Amino acid sequence: MTTRLTFEVLRDACQHAAAIRRTARMQPAGGKGDKVFPPTYQGGAYAKEVRVLEGARVPCVLLDSVQSQANRMEGALLDAHRQNRIKIPVVSVDFGAAGLPDVGEVTSLDAPHRFADAILRDSNYNDVAFRDSDLGKILDTASVKNATALFGVCPTALIFGLWDSAGPQGGLGTKFARALVSEIVAVDAETGVRPSSRIDPLAIRKDAGPVYEAKEGGWTIEESKAKQEKSKPKLWRKQGAPSELNHGNVVPSLTSEKGGANHGGVTFQYARQTAVISLAALRRLRFPNDAGACTATRDQAAHVALAALSLAAVVLGCADSDLRSRCALVVEEGARPSIEIVGSDGSIRTFTLTREEAEALLSDSVAEARRNGLPWHDQGYQLKPRAELVALVDKSRKNAVAQGTAEE
């Protein structure tokens, strides 16, 4: 029997409970037994490990990491904010107006280090370097014991974590631990093989080469028209083979786990998504007023708002689980996810929470926080990238284009 998660229930949980969690059993969108492709790490390897589930040791593969899940949730919050379904503080850097329209706007919900990211650091606010502005100086004083200003300009940093390692204090900069973590794991997973092949309708053979870089740009098979390098015609890419121009057949082959790499996807019994909001972590945060004084009601109002923001992130971010190419997941039939409040004594209370309810809960909790004098600057802040940063991005992109024609 489940009931709706209300503001009153959330407020009580923030004072007494240990955590809020959401778990979901998932299957491939193609159905049970369909293959999905996990993310690959250095060397092309999957993140494989044995986990203990209900007393048994089970082979598992990571399908979406804590960091990746956080990015998806932040993206979902940003989408909802832009659609005016929720209103949250967002700091943005406009590269479009600086001559890089394809980069567009980068926000504190896109940047890897959030409010402490180097993209913000290397931008200006009101024609002042970000870290020298009143806005940027928030990072110099923010701490677990004084999170008020950061709550007002970038509350997502308080739930997803922040480390001001790019600031003047380096590794000693302001740090907030994650209060919200989520991941998706394939349970009882088996690695597969990956077939590859290509039939070229032009039937271009390898011995039709070599192919050279042309003096006038592009490629040529005539030595007289080739660029010279060390008194020799310069080969295209590494070997000058037609395949390096994407011409020719690819011999049918199978790729499987070898030397730590496994590109053949996985099948599994089920995937498990687990999102946990640590209410104990939120309760450690303090929110003093301008005079430096803290009150229980003010702190609690901030904790409830952050918990509601976390719930909105979970509910909105978990709505779409198309993780990457060939890795689309859906909730297992008959296994509808629910929200559980976990007591410090291990007790569990189960609730339902729809997208609309989560958005309303956030609105109500923010209103309560404001009534207690807490800042919530949902009109946002607009920064301009410094000329040096724009030039660096532009040069990097031009180099990438140039190297793309000369390197593998």
Any key phrases for this structure?
nine-stranded mixed β-sheet; alpha+beta; 2 domains; five-stranded mixed β-sheet; 408 residues; 10 helices
Distance between the termini: 58 Å
Q: What portion of the residues fall into strands of 2 or more residues? A: 15-25%
Radius of gyration, CA atoms, in whole angstroms: 26 Å
Enumerate the spans where pLDDT stays under 50 for 5 or more consecutive residues: none
What percent of residues adopt helix (DSSP H or I)?
A: 25-40%
Largest sheet: 9 strands, mixed
Query: Structural class from helices and strands?
Result: alpha+beta
Chain-averaged pLDDT: 92
**Number of separate strands:** 24
Outline, from the CA principal axes? flat
Number of domains: 2
Number of helices: 10
General description of the model:
With 408 residues, the protein is of the alpha+beta class. The strands form 7 sheets. Strands 1, 2, 3, 4, 11, 20, 21, 22 and 23 form a 9-stranded mixed β-sheet that branches. Helices cover 26% and strands 25% of the residues. The protein folds into 2 domains: 3-190 and 264-392, no CATH class; 200-248, no CATH class.
How do the helices and strands line up, and which of them pair or pack?
Elements: E1 3-4, H1 7-16, E2 19-28, E3 48-53, E4 56-64, H2 66-82, E5 91-94, E6 105-107, H3 118-121, E7 123-125, E8 128-129, H4 138-141, H5 148-153, H6 156-160, E9 162-163, E10 175-176, E11 180-187, E12 190-191, E13 194-198, E14 212-213, E15 219-220, E16 228-229, E17 232-233, E18 250-255, E19 266-267, E20 270-278, H7 279-283, H8 296-317, E21 329-331, E22 338-342, E23 348-352, H9 355-371, E24 381-385, H10 387-404
Parallel strand pairs: 1-23, 5-24
Antiparallel strand pairs: 2-20, 2-21, 2-22, 3-4, 4-11, 5-6, 7-8, 7-24, 9-10, 11-20, 12-19, 13-18, 14-15, 16-17, 22-23
